[in-house]
Amino acid sequence: MLPAMTSEQKSRCTRALAIAIGLASPVCYLVLAHTHGRLNRMWFMVDLDVYRWSGMPVVSTKRLYTAKYSGFLSFTYTPFAAVLFAPLHLVNLRVLRWGSALANLGALFFSIDVVTKHSGGDSRLSSSARRDVCWLLFAVCVWMEPVQQTLRFGQVNLFLMVAMLADLTRPEDSRWRGAFVGIAAGIKLTPAIFLLFLIVSGQRRDARRGIAAAALTVIVGWLLLPRASYAFWIQHRFAQSSRVGSIRFVANQSTYGAIARMMGGRFAVPSLYFSVAAAVLVLGMSQAVRIHRSGHVVPALCWCGFTGLLVSPISWSHHWVWVVPFIAWAAMRAMQRRCGAALLALGTAATFAAWPMRGATSITMPYGVIWLTQRADRLGRTWSVSWLTENLYVLVALTVMVVFELWQRIGPSLGSRITGNDLLDAAQERDSSQM
Asked: Considering the entire predicted model, what is its pTM?
């Protein structure tokens, strides 16, 4: 009869199992991606190719925003981003692609690690147990559709997200808090909504640092790439969403994209979009501020990220990587035996997961539910199903926001204000910990 395992031995076995599961998940992805890489299905990385191309001296200095990579892809980031991408053209393309995949996976794990440290989870959870949870969450989040698309295209979304998470989860008296948000906004304009969040949430000192950092990136871009900077900032190339791609394409999971797909160009879509976007911006930002003031930093940042994705004219599905910290936060809350948080984590993961589907080439690969319409036309779907799947991310995010607002308004009559619920109860936790 085998002797009983000690608690230390059980802990080591649990840790080894969690690490094995955590490593097996990305290894499976890399093997699958490499297998189908020659078919340009999971190893396309065309965005990484554009980054590499934009850093070439001739392109950067003379025709950064007029030339097109391979004749059809435009560079849409800031001149400062092109400066940062300059060294990439010196790296072998195969090495660069493998490096991008591994670096993105590292950023994914680090973002989960940051969230689990600041999630307000069970204080009884030891450091080693928290790290085990990180590995398990990492194994799951590798197969989220936004993460899959980020890896497939060689995107920078995970890098920008982890920079902002690491920046804004630091103590509010940190000397450089907010600077990384400004630098992220100086690379890609969409993170600028976090500067607005810092302002409206009363974090004015951090907002000033972020704005100063963003301004510094603009100055660097002007000094090194004056012609490109003139085209981007003065000739308003940054506002030309048509340079990015088709608004109606299913991958554009923004309110603008959803409205364009539903209206089919029959009405004045831009005017309707501006009205809806303004309402969503006010609603989302006010909710993010309330969540932050209750003491929950991570969900407030996720809420801000979701709001930015909804109001932006173009929000490709790979931009929705903010579901990763949201799932990680909800999972940590679920460990406090909170049924609502567990359902929230499972529901979010199921919605944004990359499920195995067989495409037109008869090759089974992971795709998000939003691609179901394009992958299953032969099933004779109805318009209602198409409308739901094509706009799933937008509809889910808007529904959660509306339910959140109704919950807060109806809560007082039920004797359950939002600050007493799973989502916003940090104040109560602090009081109980001080007793």
From this structure: 0.87
